[in-house]
Amino acid sequence: MAKSGLSILDPMEMWRDALAQWEGTANKVAGKQLKTEEFAKVLHSVSGATMGMQQALTKANKTVLKEMNLASRDDLAEIGERLHRIEDMLEFLCRQVSGKSPAASTPAPMPPRTKVPPTPADAPAAAAPVAAVPATTPAAEAAATSVAPKAAVKKAAGKSAPKRAAAKPAAKRPARKKA
């Protein structure tokens, strides 16, 4: 690329050239030093000292936690593994007793909570499972959980129903990972 008369006056170009030359020189010198036996010895001794300090710190932390009667991270991990094994055994025993898995038996869906008790006319609509209608948006969810009771209240009262908060489905417990 040909240099124009203005490129000589560009301080940023001069800075980039100087920086590139400095990086090239530094890389050559560092490359030569990294290949020497002395550098390898120093690096080995530094990493050995670091490992020794880390082991001493771990041992001191365990001693302090034991003196304070607190559990260490290893103790908590062991308790978690034991709890997981106990839960698996309980699940196995429940399957043996009932003949089916506990996860397969889900309770019947609860009707939406309203201020007005359901009337016999809208009882089948209120007992319909809410989870059967896929609710992809909050508006669709609100419509799926509260349309039938609102219509029944309007018919019974003969006027517009009072505004209510939409019933939200109960939060499900996240599935546990099995090892």
UniProtKB/TrEMBL annotation:
Residues 108-121 have a biased composition (Pro residues). This is Poly(3-hydroxyalkanoate) polymerase subunit PhaE. Pathway: Biopolymer metabolism; poly-(R)-3-hydroxybutanoate biosynthesis. Signal peptide: none annotated. InterPro entries: PHA_synth_III_E. Residues 122-151 have a biased composition (Low complexity). Residues 99-179 are annotated as: Disordered. The keyword Transferase does not apply. Residues 152-179 have a biased composition (Basic residues). It holds the Pfam family PHA_synth_III_E. Keywords: PHB biosynthesis. Transmembrane segments: none annotated. The keyword Isomerase does not apply.
